[in-house]
Amino acid sequence: MTSMEIVLAALSEGRLIANMNDVKGQLRSCAASGSWTDPKGNTLRAAPELIDLLAGLVAPPNKMTIMSLFRFKSPHGKL
Fold it and tell me: Which residue of 17, 25, 41, 44 lies most exposed, with the fewest beta carbons within 10 A?
């Protein structure tokens, strides 16, 4: 099972709560097409290391809430 599959399974099983800031939609878009396009038309991609980290954090039986996937206007993310 890939890291993204683990993350998506955690979403569907309720172990990963991602209801704020469209994180759930962002993750699903990244899984389907490799990227997410924000409302302004900017295309963003999640680093594989980020998805690996999330997968490790939500491996059964762990549960967590994530409030944001992409950080805007910060040194942590670039378009």
Answer: 41
